[in-house]
Structure formats: structure tokens, C-alpha cells
């Protein structure tokens, strides 16, 4: 039986970091338009908090890709379940993820989106778990680098549960 055994990052720690990331993004895209792309479902909570701290002309869109299903291991393949509604050619695109683990989700996504000729393509993740990386990936904005624990909350699930926790918790037996 899995349950949440510890808090890794509190609601307050997350709030401070989200604000810092938003201000970095604001500085980097000053005077530019920006399309923020949230990757469903995990990034939904993070991206909603993030955009509300970014004081720029921001558009938002979502993509849904899935590699984990109901398991704690990536299947290694990424399925596009919902594509963008808008054409990104000539636009500044910021992909927002909740967590980068193996890196497979994002590297597949970046490869797909690059072929659409955006003006720029940058990556932002709240959490980075570098120990489990299978593919190299350059991330422009990272909230927290975390150790190799299976975590949930703030949008992140285990078997579709716990996404509504306001903090990041560690799942144990
Ligand atoms: O770097 P990776 O090993 O690819 O793992 C990271 C991805 O896995 C999770 O999504 P998941 O596919 O489980 O779907 P979800 O966002 O709907 O929970 C998470 O939200 C990231 O998108
Ligand atoms: O630690 C994790 N927890 C939940 N989903 C995930 N997807 C990649 N890593 C994780
Ligand atoms: Mg996800």
C-alpha cells in the first residue's frame, strides 16, 4: 500500500520559488510576447500559479502527452494525446513541466515542436530529478533539483491520485 510519508517541499517553499521563476521569465522576455505551454496533467497546477506572477503579454495553451500511465516507471514512449490549438511558427514558446525525470517526455516534445519553427523554445520545470536522466536535455528554468524519490502533489500524481495536495510529498510503502 502506497501512501504519502513525508513532505519534500512545503506550500510556502513552492510559492516563493514560483514567484522567483516568474520574475526570471519576465526579465528574459521583457517587451516580447510569450506563449506558455503547460503539459497536462501534471503541470496544470504549477502553470496556473506561474502565469499569475508573470507581468507580460502571455498567451497560454496546453498539450497532453503521457508516458507513465499508472506505473512509477516511464514506458519510454511518449504519446501526444492533445496537441496545441495554435500555430507556434515565429512565436516565443515556453514549455512548462512539473517534473523532469528520465527526460523522455520533454526531449520528444522539444523535437516535435522544433519542427514547427518557433522563434524561440525554452523549458521550465518546477522539479528536476537528474539522477534518473536517460537523455540529455537543456532546461532554462529549474525550480528545485530533487533527489530520486517518487513524489506527488501540486499537480503530480501516483495512479491519478494526490494531484490536489498543495505541497510536494514523498510516497513510501
Ligand atoms: O522525464 P520523464 O521521465 O518523461 O517524466 C516526467 C513526466 O512524467 C509525468 O507525466 P505523466 O506522463 O505521468 O502524465 P501526467 O502529467 O498526466 O501525470 C510528469 O508530469 C512529466 O510530464
Ligand atoms: O516522482 C514522480 N512522481 C510522479 N510522477 C512522476 N513522473 C516522473 N517522475 C515522477
Ligand atoms: Mg506530465
From TrEMBL:
A Pfam entry, by short name: Pribosyltran
Keywords: Cytoplasm, Glycosyltransferase, Magnesium, Metal-binding, Nucleotide-binding, Purine salvage, Transferase
InterPro entries: HGPRT (IPR050408), Hxn_phspho_trans (IPR005904), PRTase-like (IPR029057), PRTase_dom (IPR000836)
Catalytic activity, EC: 2.4.2.8
Positions of the Phosphoribosyltransferase domain: 13-158
Family: Belongs to the purine/pyrimidine phosphoribosyltransferase family.
Protein name, UniProt field: Hypoxanthine phosphoribosyltransferase
